[in-house]
Predict the 3D structure of the following.
Amino acid sequence: MGRFVPKDTFYKKAKLEGYRARSAYKLKEIQDKYRIIKKGDKVLDLGCAPGSFIQIIAQEIGRDGLVVGIDIQPVTPIPDKNVSTITGDIRDIDVSKILQRFSIPHFDVITCDIAPNLSGIREADEKNIDELYDASKHIVVNTLRTGGHFILKSFFSESFSSKQKDLKNLFVRVSIFKPTSSRGMSSEIFFVCKERMG
Ligand SMILES: C[S@@+](CC[C@H](N)C(=O)[O-])C[C@H]1O[C@@H](n2cnc3c(N)ncnc32)[C@H](O)[C@@H]1O
């Protein structure tokens, strides 16, 4: 029989407030502190299922904005007109086709909350985490406008400092943020990267 895990406060809050996942509060905290997403922005959300980041983003961008979400798993449709989701692996996706499909030259903000499936085998997991980082960076380099912002979930792993260094070569400011809504025992943190350099 499985171990009983009590439902936490943010899980219950999300249910009550109509968010699809507790992750909504992580993005809310980031947005409150760093004011990343603006009205009218075109935003790409990597690893978007079940869609709570998208719910927050859709509120922030308003009717003139657009949020496109990508996930390996299909997302139950979100009825807002400014939302679109694509089922696919970010390692295989052709980003130029996405820009073409929505007739936009670039995104203003990219968020990435991807959590890889961990096998428990350290080398394999590190490789998987690094591959996903490379894929998200490829997307950022090819679709984020100069001056645009990137929010990336990461974990304290061997490659943490090298990723931080790498991001500092791409963005004017790179902050590390641990939302209070993120489980204390989890090693997840967010890189909040502001102003992509040209
Ligand atoms: C923590 S969940 C994201 C929660 C989401 N931000 C929200 O607020 O609802 C992580 C997601 O990453 C997705 N994912 C994992 N590997 C992926 C990949 N290679 N390409 C696209 N999505 C991936 C998973 O399917 C999962 O839905």
The chain has one domain: 26-196. The mean pLDDT is 92. The chain is about 35% helix and 25% strand.
